[in-house]
UniProtKB/TrEMBL annotation:
PANTHER family: BIFUNCTIONAL ALBAFLAVENONE MONOOXYGENASE_TERPENE SYNTHASE (PTHR24291:SF50), CYTOCHROME P450 FAMILY 4 (PTHR24291). Heme binds at C427. Belongs to the cytochrome P450 family. Its cofactor is heme; FMN; FAD. It comes from Streptomyces griseoviridis. The lineage of its organism: Bacteria, Bacillati, Actinomycetota, Actinomycetes, Kitasatosporales. This is Cytochrome P450. SUPFAM superfamilies: Cytochrome P450 (SSF48264). Pfam families: p450 (PF00067). Keywords: FAD, Flavoprotein, FMN, Heme, Iron, Metal-binding, Monooxygenase, NADP, Oxidoreductase, Transport. PROSITE patterns: CYTOCHROME_P450. InterPro entries: Cyt_P450, Cyt_P450_CS, Cyt_P450_E_grp-I, Cyt_P450_sf, Cytochrome_P450_Monoox. One of its GO terms (molecular function) is iron ion binding. Residues 482-507 are annotated as: Disordered.
Amino acid sequence: MAKTTTATGLPKGFRDAGQGWPELARLPHPPHRLPFLGDVLGASRHTPLQDTLRHARALGPVFRRKAFGKEFVFVWGAREVADLADEARFAKHVGLGVANLRPVAGDGLFTAYNQEPNWQLAHDVLAPGFSREAMAGYHPMMLAVAGRLTDHWDRALAAGHAVDVPGDMTKLTLETIARTGFGHDFGSFERTRPHPFVTAMVGTLGYAQRLNTVPAPLARLLLRGAARRNAADIAYLNSTVDDLVARRRTAAGDGDLLDRMLATAHPVTGERLSARNVRRQVITFLVAGHETTSGALSFALHYLSRHPEIAARARAEVDAVWGDAESPGYDQVAKLRYVRRVLDESLRLWPTAPAYAREAVEDTVLAGEHPMRRGAWALVLTAMLHRDPEVWGADAERFDPDRFEPGAVRSRAPHTFKPFGTGARACIGRQFALHEATLVLGLLLRRYTLVPDPAYRLRVTERLTLMPEELRLRLERRQAPVGTGASAAVPGPPSAEPRCPVRRAGD
Ligand code: HEM
């Protein structure tokens, strides 16, 4: 395996912000900074993001935090974030959290450095796998997996049990990406304990996250046992994927992502993905393709259960658009515009991948104020950008899907809603996630009334992504709508979704 860390134990390419920001001292930082340890007083290892949001409110749109001798610069002001979206001057930075995933995902799409040739190759080969046509092909598979979820929830309802929302959404999204991506079934809904592949994946993600919070020089010492388990987890993931790929080489699948990876040559150069790179992409898609969507669905279900008037409006839309059709067609999902706004508003308050990093590709001045040297980087705090009162109003903390009504969207500056990142390295799975989540919310709203536990208060767990902690809901079965007919779509303009899932205007 290629060496991925430096002599200090930090991921290759990691640069302290002190080296790139000539006027770093001008940036505010939290009070009570300790020598070497930095701004750690009052910080929790379990909620780094929520701690940072607290500091963001007090310190303003650009600030820094120091942890274990390393400076990190955070940016959340709308003007500064829009400037960082300028692809001529800035690009993705493979920051500490992402670089710690390199031992498992290597130069897969998410963890590749910008200059690695395999990024462009894989992007060009795989982007058509997220086109409208490809998505229409995944739709029946998504429906089949959603059917397993509703069977599971029907059983919970019959037994009088509340449902474990984050747990079940994670099963759903994992099965969906495994089925549509690789024709694989982990049997998540049928198992009482997770599939060993899932355990290994969770183990290796947990290890990467622990590396973010343990000072690099100590990590080798403190995490020796965990590092051994991590190596075993990675070996297991690799061999399972290699077996899957070997089987597929002998018999093609039904046009899923893996078929594309194996069979598609680059449209211009004719080059193909290497076997090693295919392995990394399969693991990348399994990881990137499920927890984020699972969190988004879970937050949306939380808010729907707490706002019966919003749930009623969303349900009325589902009934009108889908009528009594047994299964909604592909086009009927894009027509659920209000359901989609519920999802957008959930991703505004809790963008489940809550930050992304950008680096200067040349010496430049951020937003005309902060000099940055080439290679200097900053973390965009999406979760705070999405709460900026100057953009979202004094009631920015309130859940209100009408913020995504088309007129309201047009009135806001570009780059103020960035749950899927920005530019060439924005999320390739955006349309996939939105189609899957809108479909599933529609199916659940149509079938159940969601009854919250009145004692529940939203707490957010931070793993690599965000999730509502211990969210349980009780269900009541709704009567199927009658007489509206599948064709009774709510009239409206054709969907404004562009065809390319990656390069959107405003990205
Ligand atoms: C609500 C769900 C999702 C959210 C919030 C989300 C968010 C993001 C964000 C913020 C990035 C950019 C990261 C960066 O700049 O470092 C990203 C990249 C990526 N996402 Fe997603 N994602 C979601 C669903 C998915 C799905 C379903 C897939 C796959 C089917 C996926 C695959 C990827 C990949 C491969 C990248 C790397 C793209 C590249 O650099 O070329 N994501 N995602």
